[in-house]
Model the fold of this input.
Amino acid sequence: MLLALNGTVTMYCNLLTDIRIAKECGYRGIEIVGSKLFRFLDEGLDLGIVKDQLKDLPAVAMGYIQDIERTGAKEIESLLGETERICALAEKLECPTVQVLTGPLVKGGAYKGHPGASRQELLSISAGNLKKVAGIAKKHRLSLYLEALNWTPLSGLEDSIELIDLVGGDNLGLVIDFWHMWCAGATAEKIAMLDRRYIKGVHFCDSAEPLGVRSPDQTQPSRRVWTGGGLIPLKEWVEAIKATGYDGWWSPELFSPKHWELDPWQTANNLRQLLEYLLC
Done:
């Protein structure tokens, strides 16, 4: 198993600082926050600088392609354009996996949705778009991992698996995100029964709310907690994932503004130590 630093842990750092902290704290990979890479490139800096820094720290994944429930010619054209951009960058950085999110969301992060659409209609819309997105990813020799946001209708373990099965192909899986799965009602017992071939990665995090309490929107208030200080039985979940036979990357994730204000190096190091301890 490989531990990769997720750039949300060091949210206020730039990408090169993320890479340096990951190396110094003993991570063996990094999950790139796409907005940090785009910000770097938008300043006219060369992608080769990032690639050079990744020579001894592989990028395991990059986020994200969002709002997969888009409809309308212009919206879908935009979706595919965004997919092409991020997949082209991932290929150049030899990053094998790109994140895909459910949606659509309004600017503030709440679910915008399709009024009156049934679950089957939402599955059909999402699967149709995901097939196109997966086709672009395959052209760049990449895989996708689906992260179903728990405040959207298509969320949680069962919905994710059904959507992946509808799309078919061999380059789409899911991420076991502790927080999203917990909020959508997943249990360690259900995760332990999952076919490991679905799992592309793991986001290790916690929740301040009980099982099945969903977030209202992108503000994600129940994430304002230190990992290990919330209500998710972390050891049970770690053991459940291990029981599937999955042996890929694990990434500590943190969406707590309070903890972003602390020393990012120490935060990254502490979360690595905690995850390593629980994996033993």
User: Anything to note?
Assistant: Strands lie at 2-6, 29-33, 59-65, 97-101, 143-147, 172-177, 199-204, 249-252. The domain at 2-279 is CATH 3.20.20.150 (TIM Barrel). The mean pLDDT is 97. The two ends are 11 Å apart (CA to CA).
